């Protein structure tokens, strides 16, 4: 019996922000131990959990990863956590598949690692797990994410999710505060910030490759309305289809922000987050996952690889440990109105398809 809905119904009631997934981690760890896995809690001082089942026979080490954290929303004046990206579903699917894999004795060789990762939304969870040695012995690593209804319908599975690189750039523009009646004695930081945003918007790169850079936060306040502000803070969300394009975009962003601010005599202090890398997927694993989807759910269920501007910290595992062969699928659950929307909801029974894909993957790689 697959307990995916039971797990989901509980996990959905305890949403927790990144690195604060205490109840979630305790629940998945307890369930793994009851199923027969050897469990490591508190990986690298975090809330990460890993369950290991060793067949005792030679073979590959297969890791399957699910993320645990919820999102923080500000709703009607209150700050709340909600599972609006489906991570509760990811945990429920992997937990149900892990239990069934031992019940049905699906692991005939090698080792199975069930990885529950914290802080995906913060972009740091995967790196914490890597630094904790979780994937040092992993040969094949699989991930899965529920998809919005606009991309993939219930009963369908995208063979490979080609996520983009993403990062955040914060720039503090420094001018000089002055009286509103004597602006010539100061440097308006707002003017410098506006010029920086305009310079970023004028960046040109190869149009055949997807990339974007947009200002998502603009804060400036002198404290009064009759003085020009001496400081402004702006934040840019940047994305690129490939890691090498992201590197180029970052360089051009720095030049544009500094040059834009300089047009009015302002300066800029710039900080770039490491963000998430673009997808690095193994072609053979992707092909085999396509066969697994077709064999499990039917030929019409298997959808071709999809490029998305979304980011996913899963790919730090591959960047940090290049010998890992990775695959990442997208599960159709009719999620709507969209991921990260405060009222996001989806077809919960569709999670059973994800469990079946996980189990079939275990059979494919460990039998």
From TrEMBL:
Record organism: Megasphaera cerevisiae DSM 20462
The protein's required cofactors: Mn(2+)
Binding, Mn(2+): 85, 87, 121, 145, 340
Name listed for the protein in its UniProt record: Peptidase M20
GO molecular function: hydrolase activity; metal ion binding
Pfam families listed in its UniProt record: M20_dimer, Peptidase_M20
InterPro entries named among the record's database cross-references: Amidohydrolase, Bact_exopeptidase_dim_dom, Peptidase_M20, Peptidase_M20_dimer
Domain Peptidase M20 dimerisation: 165-260
